Amino acid sequence: MLFELAIKTVRGLISVIACGPPGHIADVVEDWFTSGAADGLLIAGNILPRDLEVFVDRVVPILQQHGLFRTEYEASTLRGNLGLAEPGCNARNHRPPVLRQAMHPVAPPSTRRAAPVM
Fold it and tell me: How many domains does the chain fold into?
């Protein structure tokens, strides 16, 4: 039941459907992009996961040849690829003191006890 709901939801988001050989689909995407009708696309594969693999393996290379799909990323992080500034500090070392203590509890020196000798 959840799967059927997901399919109905995705189908409700789709306004144009393109199907056919990879070259035709790439041409349709290029037409949408160059005409200003779209600046991206939502790929909703039929039912089988194989549909996405076919798109990636056969359509994306054509789009890359036409300069419509990147061949590599400019930055090494998602933050960098989104054009966001890299944080100037290591987040691990800049947690609030309370959180730092909770993660690494250490008893103050005056309350530490020596290990019992057996």
Answer: 1
pLDDT digits (tens, 9 = 90+) for 17-32: 678 899 999 999 999 8
DSSP string computed for 11-53: HHH------SSHHHHHHHHHHHHHHTS-SS------SSTHHHH
93 part of a folded domain: no
Tell me if 111 is assigned to some domain: no
Task: Quote the pTM value.
Answer: 0.55
- Domain range holding 49? 1-71
